[in-house]
Amino acid sequence: MSKHRIRLKDIAEKLGITVTTVSKALKDYPDISNETKKEVKRLAEELNYQPNSQALALRSNRSYTIGLIIPEIVHFFFSNVIKGIMNYAEQNNYRVLITLSNNSMNLEKKQANLLFNTKVDGVLVSLANETDTTKHFDMFKEFEIPIVMFDKVNEDFKCNKVTIDDKQGGFTATEHLINQGCKRIAHIGGPKNPLNSVNRFEGYKKALHKYGLDFDPTLVKECVDVTLEEGHTFANQLLQQENPPTGIFTITDQVGVGVLHAANDLRIKVPEQLKIVGFSDSQIAQISQPPLSTIHQPGYEIGEMAAKLLIEEIELQDGGYEQPMDFRQIILDTYLIKRETS
Amino acid sequence: MSKHRIRLKDIAEKLGITVTTVSKALKDYPDISNETKKEVKRLAEELNYQPNSQALALRSNRSYTIGLIIPEIVHFFFSNVIKGIMNYAEQNNYRVLITLSNNSMNLEKKQANLLFNTKVDGVLVSLANETDTTKHFDMFKEFEIPIVMFDKVNEDFKCNKVTIDDKQGGFTATEHLINQGCKRIAHIGGPKNPLNSVNRFEGYKKALHKYGLDFDPTLVKECVDVTLEEGHTFANQLLQQENPPTGIFTITDQVGVGVLHAANDLRIKVPEQLKIVGFSDSQIAQISQPPLSTIHQPGYEIGEMAAKLLIEEIELQDGGYEQPMDFRQIILDTYLIKRETS
DNA sequence: CTGAAAGCGCTTACAG
DNA sequence: CTGAAAGCGCTTACAG
Predict the structure, then answer these.
(1) Strands (DSSP E) along B289-339, which ranges?
(2) Distance A260 CA to C8 C1' (A)
């Protein structure tokens, strides 16, 4: 037989008082004698009493649990985000229930339902690449369950959001290549659906324009899976065309390393003949040889901030706040990390 | 005002029957008329009724939630493990509550308490490197909450375990270097505490012994933090000694890539003059140039298997099984991935 | 100062 | 075939 957990009842019986009194004593109600409080607390301590969290949740309609839906976990950026979320949540006594969408909208829907039924106090979500509607999140709004979107967000959904300025990041990367003397700069970008790719591309074009360089569509490639292999393939094409680029800005570090490999194959010297800037500052950017210049994307801080906004909203609401909320979009700074490919 | 969730009571009122009947109808009790069942189910469907999971948990003492304590999340191997756990758990309708020990025993204790108080149905843990006692897990055994350890396990704690055969892995790596013609083989290992390092080192010695090569302590280095930088530094020392090694087996891929960098600096050709084998098959092993030979460590499968053992134990116990359990240790296979450094 | 009662949303043994 | 009652572990308005 397993022992059972200590309940208020156990303490009450040992002390010959009622459960009501024990409960109030532990919560320092003013109408309980100091004598009783002392005894109760002593015994609770001795027996290592811990309130039953399910009973608490049932009664108070609060679970101190937040739900997370993330597109992918084996991923440097997202695992940093998760770490930021977990640390912040933990410091504020929230637990985190984590679910995966695997970048599938269907799975994302399923996970949203699961979290809804689990009665989490709030939801943190980064949308799947596939996701093109947010209907499956409407129920959270209807039931006033706070929701915060981060990184991959939907423009039309009304809620707090935490992102980086992808356009600014793309601009910075491209401007840096220009400053390093590149005149023909290519971009290997991502698919149109997650907004991030589009914005990075916009930043690229903005920098070209600002510095009076022509935009040349033959210097732009669009990845489907955003892999190292695609970077390799597209770089091969770009570098073997008639008037090859001398700088390439890539949508991710993965793709950037693919470019590096292609340059190696073709005996093109980096950074002398070709300069490369990636995006994300993931581990592989540090480890590649030569180490890849990149745009730092503050994953940990995004996670922290998203958790912070969510928990603030939960607690505001719990305090009975009824005004319609003014939703904010927090945009965190990126910055260039110059390493040896530029 | 937020809507409230549909309860049995709401269905009962609309149908003019009692909560009891609704509950039984939904669960297909044989003593309810088909007529009633049909109506109840129809309405439940229409209103999208979902039972309150907290109430269920309170009543049944089952939360369908498993807790996870993991040393680190920004980590290729562990994030694969987590993914395996999550996918398996989800397929079996369990949720996963994830916590981080940051490789600190104190934090691990705190997380264990948290999970205990949250009343998870079972616990999955990979020990912090620091951890040298398992007293903080005894409460789970006392209360018959199943616990499964994986990867970093404690030999003395009685529970199901899932690991790889680190000794075999170390043996395979070293044997491969021998087969590739290396006569002097160095090992850059890890600290003594996580058993894994010790075992990989044992495997290394076993291979040397089997093939009649002398064990030379000057060819063995011990990392503290197991970083790329340490690999770099130790390789520098090894490669500049009088009689340098022609093969190096490293405790991780990180360290292996550090060795690669050192060889580059010293203009030592890999694999011609120096062969390197890492361990883990992490992403950086694929991406380094040349790509690193390594031992594949099946993270995803470890996670799946650990979740499987845990959930089986939970359900066995829930079925009222009272025999003392025969605990198993599942050892998953590793295998060599030969790439271009050997 | 203490305690009896009701209630959070369920399930199930028991009565009719 | 249906329902009243008790109970899971708590909290809190109310009575004494």
Answers:
(1) 294-296, 329-332, 335-337
(2) 61
The residue in chain A having the minimum alpha-carbon distance to the alpha carbon of residue B101 is A87
- pLDDT above 90 coverage of chain A, percent: 79
Structure pTM?
0.91
Q: Which pLDDT does position B320 carry in this prediction?
A: 66
pLDDT (tens digit, 9 = 90+) per residue, B78-131?
999 999 999 999 999 999 999 999 999 999 999 999 999 889 999 999 999 889
Which residue in B279, B238, B228 sits closest to A288, CA to CA?
B228
Interface contact flag, A52 B100, Cβ < 8 Å? no
Give the E-state strand segments of A246-334 in sequence order.
247-250, 275-277, 294-296, 329-332
Q: Nearest Cα to A82, choosing from B131, B262, B78?
A: B78
Site from B58, B111, B116, B141 to mutate, A interface, most A CB atoms within 10 angstroms = B58
Which residue ranges of chain B lie beneath pLDDT 50? Answer: 1
Distance CA B276, CA A132 (A): 46
What CA–CA distance (Å, rounded) separates A51 from A9? 11
Predicted local distance difference test score (pLDDT) of residue B1:
42
Given a contact cutoff of 8 angstroms between Cβ atoms, the answer to whether A137 and A157 are in contact is: yes
Nearest CA in chain A to B50: A117
Which chain A residues contact residue B2 at CB under 8 A? 142-144
| CB-CB neighbors (< 8 A) of B58 in chain A | 52, 54-55, 58
Q: Which residue is nearest to nucleotide D8 (CA to C1')?
A: B59
Instruction: List chain B residues with CB under 8 Å of A262.
Output: none
Q: Residue A321: is its pLDDT beyond 70? A: no
CA distance B125 to B108: 9
Helices A34-47 and A8-15, axial angle in degrees (round to 10)? 120
Question: Which positions in strand C are less than 7 Å from the protein's CB atoms?
Answer: 1-5, 7-13, 15
The length of chain B is: 342
Asked if residue A64 has pLDDT above 60, the reply is yes
Structure tokens at B100: 């981080």
- For A186, the token pair is 């290519």
Structure tokens at A166: 């992808």
CA atom of B35 to C1′ atom of C12, Å: 22
> From B94, which residue of chain A is nearest by alpha-carbon distance?
A114
The model's confidence at residue A338, banded by pLDDT at 50, 70 and 90, is very high
Å: B270 CA to D16 C1': 89
Distance in angstroms between the alpha carbons of the first and the last residue of chain B? 67
Yes or no: say if B314 and B92 are a contact pair by the CB < 8 Å rule. Answer: no
Helix (H, G, I), strand (E, B) or coil at A217: helix
Helix (H) or strand (E) segment spanning residue A196: helix A195-210
A187 Rama sector, left if φ>0, alpha if ψ -120 to 50, beta otherwise? beta
In a mutational test of the B interface, the residue from A54, A77, A91, A255 whose CB has the highest number of chain B CBs within 10 Å is A54
DSSP helix/strand/coil, B289: coil
Q: What percent of chain A has pLDDT over 70?
A: 98
Nucleotides of D under 7 A from a protein CB: 1-5, 7-13, 15
